[in-house]
Amino acid sequence: MAQAILAGGCFWCTEAVFRDVIGVSNVESGYIGGTTENPTYKQVCSGTTGHAEAIRVTFDPAVIDYGQLLDIFFATHDPTQLNRQGNDVGTQYRSALFPLDEAQESEASAAIARAQAERDAPIVTSIEPVAPWYPAEDYHQEYWEGEGQRNPYCLAVIPPKLMKLRKSFAAKVKG
Question: Which family does the record assign (predicted)?
């Protein structure tokens, strides 16, 4: 198994997408890239810690490779919005990749180039150095499967992302 750390705005939304991808065995929401040790959700939401809301994806590279995960990542969020995703504004919602080794770093650059070829607006996704990972509080894990189904924000944002996943990556969606 391998891991990937991706930040594409609200972690509830990115977690929901990647839980539906074949070859993915676990998705954990958390915080990365900031200066505060063991930050809380409230601290990260303040925008003062430097952390991004992110997901740590555990996947089987024999089933889906890192580059394919990145293609899904770029297709299911807007990598042209700087420090925001829709109404979520702040550096904690930035589009960023945190490669775990040189091979992932090289593939991250290649995936950005592929995604840029499909867009007119410049991609602002950053490639950041790996940093300490802090799992989000328990109530953020598997959020869409529970509380998210009753959250108006999630109900507005997540289903279109899942539809795009199913339409554009049908062969990579769990049945």
Answer: Belongs to the MsrA Met sulfoxide reductase family.
